[in-house]
């Protein structure tokens, strides 16, 4: 039995271009909704502990993380100090809009999309083809197949994007021509070899691969339960939205210790990239032990509420939009096939 293969020749009933459009729409809508939340969070952080020039901080729109370098004097930066004292999240929203306009809530959106769109396309496309291929080969729809496909797809996406993240951070730290950037790349390769472009790969994998496996497996299980319990279509937006939020929350909670380590390694890497520190070759486990020794178990779960508050709705919006657009194209393709003249004999 070949699960989900339809007239398009694609395992999921849509063309590769349609799948790219579906994943891009999900990334775009997720970033549009989630970026204001992180803008507010960073403004509140900068107010309490202003970022010094050259320091790095982690910017996350709920979909993925970015390492940013603080450049003082940039009036359009979303991490600048607000002209008014901010007393909380609601107050920050109001005062940012009053003093700077609503557009400021989406500061930093372009660089977010530059990284988010290709990552999402690679990740979701690889996941769909692996999942349907494994289901066809094994003749099974067991949720563990979704877990395996999700983990494998994430390995590929993180591996491909890691060098781009490193180069983007270098370009952000100072104004460089392409010739100068090329010289920096050559210097990095000469000092640390090609592996230097994948610094921070290990803690990212420890966080993202299990997150992906847990997320897709639970998504499938929750969707099946909702469909059976409420007798609704699996492609319905609220089914995917609800399942995405719950499975995202579970995955974010279980992988939080690795997220803490990844953030610390990412910030340390950023300081190396901009020349403010020497490379640190500590392993993921040694960093985790150091956090545990300094702060106890609670240190490994620092940032629980903001992470879940961002990841759960981001996962819900992403999968809801992605599946909704996919279903639209699937039905469109089906209608086109029905409209084609049948050739008898």
Describe the structure.
- The chain has 345 residues and is mostly helical.
- The protein has a domain at 16-31 and 110-187 and 197-334: Mitochondrial carrier fold, CATH 1.50.40.
- Helices cover 69% and strands 3% of the residues.
- The chain is built from eleven helices and two strands; from the N terminus they run αββαααααααααα.
- The chain has a two-stranded antiparallel ribbon.
- Strand 1 (56-60) and strand 2 form a beta hairpin.
- Helix 1 packs across helix 3 (109-138) and helix 3 runs antiparallel to helix 4 (143-173).
- The longest helix is centred in the C-terminal third of the chain and has 36 residues, at 304-339.
- The two termini are 27 Å apart.
- Residues 1-9 have low confidence and may be disordered.
The average pLDDT score comes to 77
The low-pLDDT segments are 1-9
Query: Strand share of the residues?
Result: under 5%
CATH topology-level name of the domain at 16-31 and 110-187 and 197-334: Mitochondrial carrier fold
Shape estimate: globular
CATH architecture of the domain at 16-31 and 110-187 and 197-334: Alpha/alpha barrel
Derived structural class? mainly alpha
SSE string, helices as H and strands as E: HEEHHHHHHHHHH
What is the radius of gyration computed over CA atoms, rounded to a whole number of angstroms?
22 Å
Q: Mind telling me the CATH class of the domain at 16-31 and 110-187 and 197-334?
A: Mainly Alpha
N- to C-terminal distance: 27 Å
The portion of residues assigned to helices is 55-70%
Q: Say how many strands there are.
A: 2
Number of helices: 11
Strand order of the largest sheet: 1-2
Main beta sheet: 2 strands, antiparallel
